[in-house]
Structures are given as C-alpha cells and as structure tokens.
Amino acid sequence: GNSVTQMEGPVTLSEEAFLTINCTYTATGYPSLFWYVQYPGEGLQLLLKATKADDKGSNKGFEATYRKETTSFHLEKGSVQVSDSAVYFCALFKNTGNQFYFGTGTSLTVIP
Amino acid sequence: EAQVTQNPRYLITVTGKKLTVTCSQNMNHEYMSWYRQDPGLGLRQIYYSMNVEVTDKGDVPEGYKVSRKEKRNFPLILESPSPNQTSLYFCASSSIGPGANVLTFGAGSRLTVL
After folding, report:
1. Continuous H helices in B1-114
2. For residues A102-107, average pLDDT
3. Beta bridge partners of A86
4. With contacts defined as CB-CB under 8 Å, which chain A residues touch B50?
5. How many CA atoms lie within 13 A of B68 on its CB side?
6. How far apart are CA B110 and CA B42, in angstroms?
7. Which residue of B has its CA nearest to A88?
8. Which pLDDT score is estimated for A68?
9. Rounded Cα gap, residues B44 and B37, in angstroms
C-alpha cells in the first residue's frame, strides 16, 4: 500500500545550523510529494511540493528533491532560524484513489 | 480570504452525546477531507469527498459519519462519541487536477470526550 515514513523527532538545533529531515515513501507510479508545516496552535500549511521525479520544491529557504530511485523527498535548510520551530509533515498524493498520505510528523525546535 | 473554517475550535463533551463539527470552504474546491491528529500517529484520514454526494472512507472511519450536500460544507458527525475519539481534528480541501491537489487546512478542532 501507500505510505510515508519520516524521521523520528524531536529535533533540536541551534540557530543557523543545517537541517535535514528524512522522508521516504512507498507508492506505485508517480505520486506528488509535499512538505507541510504546522506552527504551534495552527493548522497545517503547504511548505513546498514536487510533482515528478527530479523536481525540486523550494520555499522560505527550504528545499526538497523528488528522488524516484531512492523513493525519498528529504527536507533541507542551510541555516535554520528560531521562527522555523514547528512540526513538519511529509505527504504524498496519488491520483488513483484520491487520497493523501501523511508521515507522523517531525517536531523541530531551534534555540537561539 | 481563501480559507477553511471549522467549528467549534474546542469542545468538551460526554460519552454518547451526539456532536457535529462543521467545516466550510470558500474556494469552490471539489475535494474535502477530515483528519485526526494524535501524538505519535501523525495525521490519519477519516473520510473524504470528491464532490457533492460522493464520500469515501479513509483509514480510520469507525465511529464517524460525514455528508456532502453542498460543495462548500463537509460536516463530521460523531453519533455516539467515545473517549478514544478524543483528538485534534482537521478539515482540509483541495481542487482536483494536474498540478492541483494542494490541501488547505482549517485551524483544527480539539475534541475531548469524557
């Protein structure tokens, strides 16, 4: 079946550190891949997306590349800020079945 | 402003007392969906709808009902709530089609069942 696996948290980093949050998926065909971010007390909002292999999604300094060969979509940021503290969800969407599948979320805390 | 609105935001109720969480979107989206968020389990889909009068079960539909009589509304109904339905609930919507399928989420409804 379809599923998303992302690295366990919580993750704590110092400001300006490099961030990687790993995400791998299981799905047939070519799903669309997403990263959503949830700030404290809020709903999820789209951070970035990629719809086909080798696409790179980017937003607010975050990047992720759709790697079909390794079924991965790792999230990276070169220099995190305190304001990046949030929970990050990796997700996929398949047109067949019309369902979104989410990972369990990774909590990130950035300390000054 | 394009948004998904859920109500109530917070609710404490007792076992067996029927309740409805409303969800409304103003973006003319075809796709609407309900999720519950629990610690360590992430988001799990309860029900989704592709359009008016079309609903399907997600991964955890037991104990819930939905309806889609109008395109903008997608209420979640708990006929007889139980404590294991204590959770944070999110409604979301999306347009459908190539390059679309980006979910817009509501702010969440925190439900406690005693």
Report:
1. none
2. 93
3. A108
4. 98
5. 20
6. 15
7. B42
8. 92
9. 7
Give the CA distances from residue A32 to residues A51, A82, A94, B91, B103, in Å, rounded to whole numbers and listed in that order: 4, 29, 7, 20, 12
Q: How far apart are CA A23 and CA B42, in angstroms?
A: 14
Q: State which residue of chain B sits closest to A34, comparing Cα positions.
A: B102
Which residues lie below 8 Å from residue B6, measured CB to CB, with a gap of 6+?
B21, B22, B23, B89, B90, B91, B106, B107, B108, B109
User: What is the count of residue pairs from A and B with beta carbons less than 8 Å apart?
Assistant: 50
- Per the rule left: phi > 0, alpha: psi between -120 and 50, beta: everything else, B42 is left
Q: What six digits make up the tokens of B26?
A: 């103003």
Q: Which of B91, B103, B77 is nearest to B37 (CA)?
A: B91
Residues of B within 8 A of A51 (CB-CB) are 99
Dihedral of alpha carbons A68, A26, A46, A41, sign: negative
Q: For every one of its 114 residues, what pLDDT tens digit does chain B have, with 9 covering 90 and above? A: 889 999 999 999 999 999 999 999 999 999 999 999 998 888 899 999 999 999 999 989 999 999 999 999 999 999 999 999 999 999 999 988 766 678 999 999 999 999
Structure tokens at A97: 């079945």
**CB-based burial label for A105 (10 Å; 0-12, 13-18, 19+):** buried
Q: Does B100 touch chain A (CB under 8 A)?
A: no
A99 chain-B contacts, CB cut-off 8 A: 45, 48, 58
Residue B12 C-alpha, separation from nearest chain A C-alpha, in angstroms: 18
